[in-house]
Amino acid sequence: QVQLVESGGGLVQPGGSLRLSCVASGGIVTLGWMGWYRQGPGKERELVAGITTGGNANYADGLKDRFTISRDNAKKTMYLQMNSLKPEDTAVYYCSALIIGGASLEYWGQGTQVTVSS
Questions:
Q1: CA atoms within 13 A on the CB side of 103
Q2: Tens-digit pLDDT profile for residues 67-86
């Protein structure tokens, strides 16, 4: 079945960097728009960045100068390069994608924890 698996989270000091990955697998016919969301402690889930199949990206306000979203369609993989991390970036980061080929249209990964702390 279709699934999304994130990796790359962890503990990093303020000012550090992390690179998240999201791999899509299963009976995928078409892998469409993909995005990263995050949910911090006591906060609602929010969109961090999204990217179309053609590579057009959009970002949440204030993140474009520190975060970069990209994807490799051949590998069915999306990335999020996060630089100059701040404690307020601490959250569970989720991968989401619109996929044709499974039972649903929108899929979510299980999330990967990012903790920014000294």
A1: 2
A2: 999 999 999 999 999 999 99
